[in-house]
Amino acid sequence: MFKSPPKTSNKRNTPSRSDSDIRKLCSEEGLAPDEFIAHNVTQRTKRRYPSGAGAPEFLEELTTIKSDITNDIKSMIKELLSAQTSRMDKFENYLLDIKNQNSKIENTNTDLEKSMNFISEQITSLETKITYLEQERTTVAYKLSSLEEKMETLDRSCIKTCVEIRNLPKRIQESKKDLYDMLIKLSKLIEIDLQVSDIRDVSRQYSKKENKTSNLTVEFSNTLIKTFPSL
């Protein structure tokens, strides 16, 4: 237990006095100056801790209080460290999640960039092929036009020496010689002197089987014979 502090004196504190006043008071009360000072000045007593039989209990109590305070401080520090560690772990996990998400986004962006590059290359290749095909189409169109002109020229040159005889009767298993003979007989009927040597070729045009007649195309050796009515 703690010792209570000494009670304060009820005496009024005397105001400070000079040496002459102190000597005067000392002579009036019949006291020496040292005795007067010791009698009138209140000294503050020092607080003393218990000694003797109560000292071990006091020390044990102090030790217990110190141990409790130390344990409380350690517990508080441990709780703070645990909470701080938990927060740091959560923050670290959050940062790892963000890092993983950023990594996935970067990979996705890389894949998209590769896909876009591939598509761009394909488009460029298609554009090149289209350009080549357009050039080739232009070349083919030019060649086709040239061939058409040549065919038209050939047709015109053939027409110069050719005539068409329509609605001539068909024969079963008709041969080329039969067509020549038919043409010679026809020329005699119209009183034209036509020889076999004057005929370059003769052919029957295609017609349906049920048709009993069809046309003949006759090619003469020259344009002069073609105009045989004037002969």
How are the elements arranged and paired?
Layout: H1 19-29, H2 33-40, H3 55-161, E1 162-169, H4 176-189, E2 199-204, E3 213-220, H5 223-226
Antiparallel strand pairs: 1-3, 2-3
Descriptors:
mainly alpha; Alpha-Beta Plaits; 5 helices; 10% strand; rod-shaped; (apollo) hypothetical protein; coiled coil
Architecture overview:
- This is (apollo) hypothetical protein.
- By secondary structure, the chain is mainly alpha-helical.
- It has a domain at 161-230: 2-Layer Sandwich (Alpha-Beta Plaits).
- It has helices at residues 19-29, 33-40, 55-161, 176-189, 223-226, and strands at 162-169, 199-204, 213-220.
- The chain has a three-stranded antiparallel sheet.
SS content category: mainly alpha
Helix fraction? 55-70%
The description of the largest β-sheet is: 3 strands, antiparallel
Provide a count of the helices. Answer: 5
Which ranges are low-confidence, i.e. pLDDT below 50, for 5 or more consecutive residues?
1-17, 42-49
CATH classification class of the domain at 161-230? Alpha Beta
Mean pLDDT: 77
Region (Disordered): 1-22
Biased composition (Polar residues): 1-17
Keywords: Coiled coil
Protein name: (apollo) hypothetical protein
Question: How do you describe this structure in short?
Answer:
The protein has 231 residues and is mainly alpha-helical. The protein has five helices and three strands; from the N terminus they run αααβαββα.
